[in-house]
Amino acid sequence: MVHTYEEALSWIHSRLRFGIKPGVKRMEWMMEKLQNPQKKIKTIHIAGTNGKGSTVTYIRNILQQAGYRVGTFTSPYIEHFNERISVDGVPFSQEHMVELVNLIKPLAEELEEHDLGSPTEFEVITAMSFYYFYHMAEVDIAIYETGLGGRFDSTNIIHPLVSVITNIGHDHQAFLGDTIGEIAFEKAGIIKAGVPVVTAVAQEEAIEVITTIAKEKQARLYQLSQELKIVEYQLSESGEVFSLQTPFGKLNELTLTMKGRHQVDNAALAVMACLYIKSYYSFFVEEEHIRNGLEKAYWAGRLEELSSEPHIIVDGAHNKEGIQTLVQTVKNRYHAKRVHLIFSALSDKPLDEMVQLLDEVATSITFTSFDFPRAATAESLFDKSNHSIKWFEENWKEAVNSILPTLHKEDLLLITGSLYFVSEIRNYFLESGKRE
């Protein structure tokens, strides 16, 4: 038995030694022992390479505006571990974590003696979330973000009201496959019989895979640019403005404060998911709830402004597609700025391509590292860059503090890379009072 939050967190993290073990059999075993709470809650399931967290946030905010109590299960965390399991944006308490660990720990120990083997950290957290949302938080609906892929993800034991696949890109190829088609097949594993799926996937190869699986499952498919269309898009100083044509009617001049053209796609998927459960499951969601929910939505570490003077932004662009999106946003929105980049990433990413993309928009670029098992060294990143003004500094605090005094009004400091890195940067600014 654990008695403190620290003990509970330590036990959860101790499960990391079991690594990533695709499959849902261990989850099904644990849930059976807990009388299947996941079957007793309404859910929305979200998979995709990028944009999952933002889409979760948009859906949550819309449904909150409509008066619903909304659970969210997301990963990784940005500020505190507890935020992975939240209700109405509020992380579950340390006391609840202790209680849940004491509930799940005996099951995990029993499972270790079983042929199925020990549950992983992610499986343990997922199990905790199902029990918490049904028995303790009593949510009206829970939104689940997959951890890795979809088909064999531990969240894939739910039967949601609607499924969402944000996009497909090259990430986690060791587990999901090398081609877009293979990765799409894994993501499309969340599609359930008769459950509609909403997607912003653009590549023909991926669309073909998703369309085929949706037909096999008799799941109605809503595609962005087909049944769902973004029209009249424009930049605004505070964010993005767009109109959306849906099978349920048109919504004019929706406003986002989360910046980037990609956020329009994420918001469109969220709106469609909410309109679907309104139309087919009698959720009371009005246009004002959609408008207010989108405008108030906020997701830490996504083009997040830490300071206006000097101008500092952090963004967790942690894979090639994320960097491509970030670069396009910088070109569209910050072309008048001198962009000074600080970048750190995990070594198992396509770093050559990511660094070359960042070179395109940087006035200067500093490479750094952080304390994480798979973090690339600053020098190895530096060697991949062809930029004429570049540095490397293994200590990221030194890298940040050396550039801050040099910034002027026309400068933008953009800190990007691994979400684990961005999390450390955010906490540093918050705790040191550097954020304005």
Keywords, separated by commas or semicolons:
single chain, 436 residues, alpha/beta, UDP-N-acetylmuramoyl-L-alanine:D-glutamate ligase, six-stranded mixed β-sheet, 17 strands
Spell out the blueprint of helices and strands.
Elements: H1 5-14, H2 25-33, E1 43-47, H3 52-65, E2 70-73, E3 85-87, E4 90-91, H4 94-112, H5 121-136, E5 141-145, E6 162-165, H6 173-176, H7 180-187, E7 197-199, H8 204-216, E8 221-223, E9 229-235, E10 240-246, E11 249-256, H9 261-281, H10 287-296, E12 304-308, E13 311-315, H11 320-333, E14 338-344, H12 351-361, E15 364-369, H13 378-382, E16 390-395, H14 396-403, E17 411-417, H15 419-432
Parallel strand pairs: 1-5, 1-6, 2-5, 6-7, 7-8, 13-17, 14-15, 14-17, 15-16
Antiparallel strand pairs: 2-3, 3-4, 9-10, 10-11, 12-13
Helix pairs in contact: 1-4, 2-4, 2-5, 3-9, 3-10, 4-5, 7-8, 11-12
